Each structure stands twice: as C-alpha cells, then as structure tokens.
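forwarding from the other thread:

> can someone predict this with zinc ion?

sure thing
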Amino acid sequence: MLPKFWRKIRSRYNLIGSHCENCGSYFYPPRNICPKCRRKGKVREVQFSGYGKVLSWSVVHDGVENFWLSKPYIVALIELDEGAKIVAPLDCNPDEVREGMRVKAVFRKFGEDGEDGIIYYGTKFVPV
Amino acid sequence: MVGIVSYGTYIPKYRIKVEEIARIWGENADVLKKGLGVEQKSVPSWDEDTATIAVECAREALRRAKIDPKRIGAVFVGSESHPYAVKPTGTIVAEALGIGNDYFCADLEFACKAGTTAMQICYAMVKAGLIDYGIAIGADTSQSRPGDPLEYTAGAGGACFIVGRDCIAEIEGTFSFASDTPDFWRREGKPYPSHGGRFTGQPAYFRHIVEATKGLLDKLGLRPSDFDYAVFHQPNGKFPIRVAQILGFTKDQIKQGLVVPYIGNTYSGSSMIGLASVLDVAKPGERILLTSFGSGAGSDAFSFVVTDRIEGIERNPKVLEKIKECEYVDYGLYVKLRRKIRFG
Ligand SMILES: [Zn+2]
C-alpha cells in the first residue's frame, strides 16, 4: 500500500494527467500511450485546472474502511473542463447533487493506516 | 523592498455556536458569549487537518500571486496541530503546490505564533538573497478537552503569505519578545492541552504583546496613531480589544482584523487571518500593525506599509465573505467530526 501510494502522490495531490497533442484528448490518471492514436500519439503531462461538472454519481451507504465516518458519501463521475473524466469523492449533501453541477478540486484526507500508520491525502471535489 | 507578495486563507465551512456547546455542559450561553466575546467557532470536517488547510490557503495565495511555483524557494508551516509528530507538513504542502524539490523547509511550533515566525524567516531569507519567494503558513485544527472553557473558542483555519520583493505590503520592521512562561502547554502524546487558567492573561498574553509592540514602535520611531489598522492575536474577543486599549490603539483600528467572534481562535491562523482580512480592504500607503502571541511565551510584531501593487492583485473572495459562508453542526456531529469519541 505504502509504495503504491507514494508513487502516485504527484498525480493524486495535483490532478496531473496527460494530453495527446495529436488528437487533443485528455486523460486522468496519466497515460503513456494514447488509446486512439497509439503509435502516432504525442502524449504530454498536463496540470488540470481542477474545475469540472458532475456527469453521474452514486450515493454510498455502506462506508468502507476509511470512509465510514462520512457515510452516506458521494462518488461522482466528473468531467473536467479540459475534457478528461475522473471518478472521485464529492463532498456534498446527497440531496443537493445534480447532473451538470459545477465542482472544483480540493485537497483532503482520504484516510489513514490506523493510528500509527501513514495518512493518505488526495483530491476530492466540492460544489463551486 | 521585501514584504508580502500575495496571501490566501482557508476556513472550514462548519460552525458550532456557543449556545450549542453550553447546552451540553449546562452553562449559561449569554454569560459565556459576553465573557469571551465569541458567538461561534469553525469546525474542520472529518477529512480536514492542518495539512489540508495549509494546502488550500497556500493554493489561493499562489493563484493570486500568478508566479511560477518553481520560483518558491522556501516553505515553512507553523502549527501546534501538525498531523504527524514526526514527518513534516511542509513537504506535503510543497508537493501539492508543485514547487519542485529544491526548497528550504521545516515545520515550526510555537503555540499560536509559529506562523508569524515563519514569515520572519522568509523575510530574512529573501532579504539575504537566498530565495526569491518564501511561503509562510499558520494553520491549525486546535484541540480542546470536552467541557473545558477552551472548547468554546478552539477553532480551525489557516493563512498563507508569500514573501518576496515585488510586494503588495512592505515589511517596514519586525520585533520579537519572548520569555519562559508556562501559561499553556501540551505534553508529547497527549490529545488535549492544559492551561494556567487566569495565568494566561496578564503575565502571558498582555505582557508579551505589549512589549513586542512597544519594542517595534521604538525601533521604527512610530506611534499608534501612525497606523491605519492593528491586528493582535485573538484567543477570544476580549483580549485583543483590551490590549489595543492598553497600547493606545482605537476600536476602529482593530475592527477589520477582528475575526474571532465568528470563527473562534484559529491558533497559528488567528492573527494571520486577521491580517488577511485587513489586506482585503487596505489601500496603498496605509500602515498595518500585526502582533501575534504564542503561549510559552512570545510575540512577533510587524509593521507593514501597503504598496500600489495591492490594487493589481485578486482579493476575492474576502475573509469576511468566507466567514459568512457556513453550515452549523450540533454537538453530536461536532464530536464525531473532531474524533472525540474513542472506540477502544
Ligand atoms: Zn491521441
């Protein structure tokens, strides 16, 4: 768990994804190869603005591990303004979430490995 | 000219009212509100801590500064509630800001004044030519024992100041005063702080703020009337008003920076959020006094002169708007959010 998290810190903290300069597609998490262009693709790293809109969502009533304190909580499919899609926790009252709702990325705690373990941080979304 | 290049603040959205806490402990809310000069306090969400607050206020400061994050040469985070006892908050912040890996960094701790000390270090480093820009943060999610008088005021929030040469407010001078005074402390591994009750007033808060402020005024040859605004550390709504009186500052001078009645004492964030609120409305040429206080005990005093550049920087949303944007929680939810329930 620890090495896997550490390697992804940059893209988790910062919404760093990739952009294919050949076809204009954006991806998150970052990819090395564009699935559309394959060998013709020109993939570059990109920092997303953090703004986007809700495409769809689920309200989770069964809190797993580190999320049980916040149940019910929302996991949303969000389309970033650049076009990339991301699945992420959305900190919002379940009664207030709407399709197309504007959201922005925030830096929050995801959980911790117990009282003695490491604390995991990453990107969540809140209504704008 | 070295001073504040940009600033940002973060206040968690939840609030709890003094009435709600008093209801649980059978206290008289009106007496408490009058005595403390506090109506409510800010409460962090279950997934917010000093690191997340520090990142959010620093991101706002960086966005407003419009400078390349790679030009930040130092990150100092002052707090008494760093998430780890060993492992810096500063590196989490630096990574989240994308400033690269060549930067000076350490976490600071001096109760509620660690953030202003971070500002002094950045100021010195910029002046010495070691760095172009330094980030100084004061952020806390302060702890309080259930039922303790501190519970009515211990809030959460933070402020970030980017220090550099092309500044919106020049640091005209700074002066510190410290002594070994046991007014408030928390031993290693203990969840809640202890305090010396009445001992926190005269020999601690008042003595250190008065001496640091007087020292600064003497050094610069200035009088209270030379300032447009003054901000003092705000453990409650009463102390800053009284210390202003003692030093000869008026209520009008401290009004804009007095945020404690609505968000409580944000510890390392307290006087720095007050300064941010003043910068929200300050005009070129105006002079601002800032004196922090940290238990244990010490005060850092600063004099700032606002420059023309302040009119070119984004200053919205303002601190007072962020204070108003809030959601109230009851004591039960507060206890859950603050993890005051032990599950064995
Ligand atoms: Zn492509």
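Chain B has a mean pLDDT of 95. thats all i got for now
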